[in-house]
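HUMAN: Now follow token order:
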Amino acid sequence: MAFQEVSSSSSSSSSLSSTSSSSSSTRQWIYDVFLSFRGEDTRNNFTAHLYDALVRMGINTYRDDDDLKRGENISPALLKAIEESRISVIVFSQNYASSSWCLDELVKILECRETMEQIVVPVFYKVDPSEVRHQRKSFGVAFAKHEERFKDKQMMVQKWRTALTQVSNLSGWHLGNRYFLP
């Protein structure tokens, strides 16, 4: 499990260094884990418990505590936090795709996966990975709205679709409708 490897290789909450390639061998990560999630869906339940567990294990975890107001752009500080994280954990929930901010985060995370060899771990929380992969059910509804809202930015919408397909094909965790205790 990635988190066990992180916690055993880091002392307290120090940053991790990668030794897997020359491009990242000297990189000093500020955060061990970046959490990407839809706040209204999981901020006060699953993501809060995950964050607390990671912190208890001494894993330096970035969680954005600010709710972005509708129409605002993703902040440069948030993009920087993604770049400075060794691992990104993406918690896909029913309303994840309804947030253009979450989708912009996702695109940035996948860019970091390609350019910085960031580890990406998808968590499918009460959604089936195929819903994410093929943009069905709530993901399909969200994209119908995005296509209407961003008629003049269809390239951006297609980037989001591609990112969802790519990440849903990665190995991750499907949590279904199980209940989790703190």
